[in-house]
Design the sequence.
């Protein structure tokens, strides 16, 4: 799976151009990799319009959701609203939302449950800061984030989720975790899933790596046993790079 987190980038017109350019540059056997683009909310429809016109096998994801279905929650958008327009994935718990918008583990858990109730697959971001890594407690830290996000789920619900391990110190910094560092944490996540929900469920959950992934480092990361794809920030804003990353999944 290769998912692009476009963050707060691109106007409506730029979204149309980038989506079209991704379709034009996509790998020949693109239906064998789950390509997902996650534009800002107001541009979800712009991405859909291009994808639907070209009948392209690319899914559209949102970058945020609120856990209530409707009501007096000014500025928020609910899971049923996203589902109605065809959104099939939604990023939750991104470190930028945790840091700048106060998203807590409990909020991530509520959002996750709301998404599943609307048949939208959550892409749950977890990852440690540099201080946590330096204190060598990153494995416990990340496992606790996963435990909190998945609290109260049964195995069939857990299996529908995607987890993205994104060390905060690697996001947008140009500093990637080594394949071994990424694998260590992704393995720890998969082991936790196996302990809690069984090994079949653990195998079904896709675990992505995110943090300064580019065409130069993607092969080493994807070669790791417990890394099933990538969540891409900067490099997803360039169609050629993003498509090369999707192509790397097919090797
Ligand atoms: C992200 O924000 O999810 C991300 C991985 O960003 P970048 O690829 O730019 O580090």
Sequence:
């Amino acid at each position: 799976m290769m998912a692009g987190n476009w963050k707060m980038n691109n106007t409506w017109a730029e979204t149309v151009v980038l989506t079209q350019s991704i379709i034009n540059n996509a790998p020949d056997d693109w239906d064998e990799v789950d390509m997902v683009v996650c534009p800002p909310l107001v541009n979800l429809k712009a991405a859909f319009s291009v994808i639907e016109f070209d009948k392209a096998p690319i899914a559209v994801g949102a970058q945020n959701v609120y856990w209530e279905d409707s009501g007096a929650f000014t500025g928020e958008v609910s899971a049923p609203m996203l589902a109605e327009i065809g959104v099939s994935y939604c990023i939750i718990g991104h470190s930028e939302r945790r840091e700048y918008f106060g998203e807590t583990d409990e909020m991530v858990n509520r959002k996750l449950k709301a998404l599943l109730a609307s048949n939208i697959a959550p892409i749950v971001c977890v990852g440690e800061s540099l201080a946590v890594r330096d204190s060598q407690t990153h494995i416990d830290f990340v496992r606790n984030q996963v435990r909190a996000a998945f609290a109260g789920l049964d195995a069939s619900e857990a299996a529908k989720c995607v987890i993205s391990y994104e060390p905060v110190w690697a996001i947008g910094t140009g500093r990637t975790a080594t394949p071994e560092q990424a694998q260590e944490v992704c393995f720890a996540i998969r082991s936790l899933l196996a302990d809690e929900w069984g090994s079949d469920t653990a195998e079904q959950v896709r675990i992505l790596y995110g943090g300064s992934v580019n065409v130069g480092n993607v092969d080493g990361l994807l070669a790791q046993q417990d890394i099933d794809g990538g969540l891409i920030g900067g490099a997803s804003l360039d169609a050629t790079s993003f498509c090369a990353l999707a192509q790397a999944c097919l090797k």
Remarks:
- Residues 2-248 form a domain with the TIM Barrel fold (CATH 3.20.20.70).
- The chain has a mean pLDDT of 97.
- The CA atoms of residues 163 and 207 lie 5 Å apart.
